[in-house]
Amino acid sequence: MSLAVTERNAPFLLTGPALLVFLGLVIVPLGMTVLLSFYDWGQYKGIVPEFTLKNWIEVFTDSYFFEIFMRTFRIAILVTLAAIVIGVPEAYILNRMSPAWRSAFLLVIIGPLLVSVVARTLGWALLLGSTGLVNQGLISLGVIATPLEFMFTETGVVIALIHVLIPFMILAVWASLQRLDPQIENAALSLGAGRVTIWRRVILPQIVPGILSGSIIVFALAASAFASPAIIGGRRLKVASTLAYDEFLNTLNWPLGAAVATLLLVALVLITVGSNRLIERRYAQVFE
Amino acid sequence: MRRNGPLALIFHGLFVVFMLAPLLIVCVVAFTPEGYLSLPTRGPSLRWFRAILDYPEFIRAFRDSLWLAALSSTIAIGLAVPAALAIARYRFPGREAITALFMSPLMVPHVVLGIAFLRFFTQIGISGSFVGLVLSHVIVVIPFALRLVLAASYGIDRRIEHAAVSLGAGTATVFRRVTLPLILPGVVSGWLLAAINSFDEVTMTVFIASPATVTLPVRMFLYIQDNIDPLIAAVSACLIAMTAILLFALDRLFGLDRLFVGSGKG
User: Does any domain span residue A48?
Assistant: First the structure.
């Protein structure tokens, strides 16, 4: 090698290639997208590189966009809450299983993560349709008389997204459960604490960081999910990502689509970085 | 540690049904002998699996997806290995920022990345090309490659390398004969996780794929947007079956918990 590798320049030589790729393929394209959101656009004139705030004014003042962003974050919050309510007990149950059973069920929980989200959402479309298995089952059980509407509703999107994202919550909570010392639970038990008390006072406080970091992942992925809302929600029930898709590939109003995408990115970065900071400050001792 | 009570096991059972139901229904419907979506009540039929052969676009998309996954994860590993070694061994200015930058594709919504690449590739004139697909996939899979290689690199005892150097081995030899074998498990699992994520990626790819270069998930997504029929169920069933086989192989080879716990997105 003609270049002398020294302790001083080694880190830069080693990270250099990846750094160049990221500068060229992440920083520059993202910067161009932000720039694009300030460009003008017309039905016949196309994209005009003249600085204008009209896309941003439209995004912030038109109630159509407000409604879509509200729906996006409402769905993300519901999915996150459901993931906590279902995922935390499931992780706890999983953690108490014998190693053999646990690794078998881990396959069941992690497995779907590896299956294309399109195939998984197709499954929900089949289950949730008006003649789908869920409605047929509920009708034959006498729970309902007429089929429930799941397709093209927020409920349907939320159900599909819980299925897609709950493995992330379970993995995050399980990771923090593994760091738990089972002797602490036994100590509480020997001191006369009931099961509910042990849960509330001993286990829960120790796994809260895991729950919170799982929540951030689930929330961010739910708010930016695309395929599931597009398939279950259809063309009319739009969320931020499907809106951006429509502006780019159907309406062809790229500057407006770029404004929607930039807003989604900025909102998510603020929310995730902000909550990460809060968690780290609050639970500094847990993160060593 | 105490055992799970009956209530816990019922909850667990329901949860397992919830996780598997959508995958199972796809596989069952794929075997229908009817021309419409239905359960195969008249006995299973392979009619719709045969029908896939009449749609070469699915087969072509599958082949393109495999190439794309192999190429992009190989390039990603090529970039991730030196970067991981640098991050694991040296304290240098900007180390944290660089790590955060390399992990950032996990944080940026894939819709935004798709839009950014569409704009960028259109400007530089490679929109809709296979090269564009590979470049964009390299970016989204680098975090998976980097994380696993990084985990492997932290565990290395550097005295082994120093011993090799003191015995007269050059930089390249030390890397090839000492360092690489030590981090190989991380490299292989990182490559696999990167390849799987590239193969499954749909949100970003839907923006940059063109009719000439379309991946299997994007082809399926566009098909479902038009109509849902037993054919797409059969395609999905094939995908699910392949993933299941891969999953068992991975579990045997690496142990799934090692591959995923603490290495999920985010």
Answer: no
